[in-house]
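Workshop exercise sheet. Pairs work together: one partner reads the sequence aloud, the other fills in the structure field after running the prediction. Swap roles for the next sheet.
Pair: D.N. / O.F.
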Amino acid sequence: MDIDAFHRSTTDAAPPAGLTRPLAGLWWAAKGDWDKAHATVQADDTPLAAWVHAYLHRVEGDLDNARYWYARAKKPPSAERLEDEWLSISQTLLRGEASA
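Structure field:
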């Protein structure tokens, strides 16, 4: 799936089948369901899920918690606009790159 198809899918009622938890978390975040997004990535202890978890805490405005999750993801805290960070993380995950 490419980024355009992933973004378009956020108009659907449910995420596409086969998404990883980090991608599903981003999908729910794009739908505006922070709680569902958070629960989805919290159930995954991988660095990629931690990266999405950090993003979600930025969305929430909890920057201290976000910094903790960026550290768990081995990523620097983001200063990007939230929309740009969502796009950056989504593109990386869709390409299957564990580190970028």
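Discussion prompt: The chain has a mean pLDDT of 94. What would you look at next?
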